[in-house]
Amino acid sequence: MSLSTFAITRRGRVVTAIVAAFAPLVFLITEAIAAIAWTAGTYDYGHNFISDLGTTVCGSFFGGREMCSPLHGVMNFGYVAMGLAVAVTATLLATRLPRVRRLLVTVLGWSIALGMVLVAVFHGGVESVDNGLIVLHVLGAAIAIAFGNTLAIITGSNRRPLGFASWYRPLAIALGVIGWIALIFLGAGATFLDPAVFERISVYAIFAWLFATSVAQALASRKR
Asked: Are the beta carbons of 176 and 152 closer than 8 angstroms?
């Protein structure tokens, strides 16, 4: 059975739904575990960046925030696991689209995985600043967030060939737009919210899209 045939079978839709839900779940769980283990005071979801949890140097300061994430390995595993899950989800979804859009969705999915690997390997702390590789961390984060929200918009716009219910289109597109707006505010240095809040909105919008995709897949599988 080819990948395209598998992706449109009931079993294929169920598998895609599970993978789509796995991506944000594994990230949120690893994030929570690393945050609980944080020892530089109390980890603040409204002030600390997600990347802080992946830093390896305790007692260092980055962006005015003290770092100490004893379970940084857990968080960095979460980055990679989520990235791969998103790539697999995108690949399965892409098989139902026309050729150009199929290629675009597949490339976006695996680019997101690459971005997450860069975030996991090149940490957002003094260790990457000292060796000059912080640019790779920032690049990886930008790719993952920008492409993730773009993927939400594209899949929402293609809900018919994907076989999803009508509610999926406005929801997926809205989540992608919200994520992009938050990312733009973050990059522009907007100050009416803490930068960490903009970061989380831009990332969690992708999670919400993935959960919506999982639900849409599960519902579609029941009709087959």
From this structure: yes
Q: Would you list the domain boundaries of the chain? A: 3-222
pTM above threshold 0.70: yes
Q: What is the pLDDT of residues 186-224, one digit of tens each?
A: 999 999 999 999 999 999 999 999 999 999 998 987 765
Phi, psi for 48 (deg, rounded to 5): -80, 140
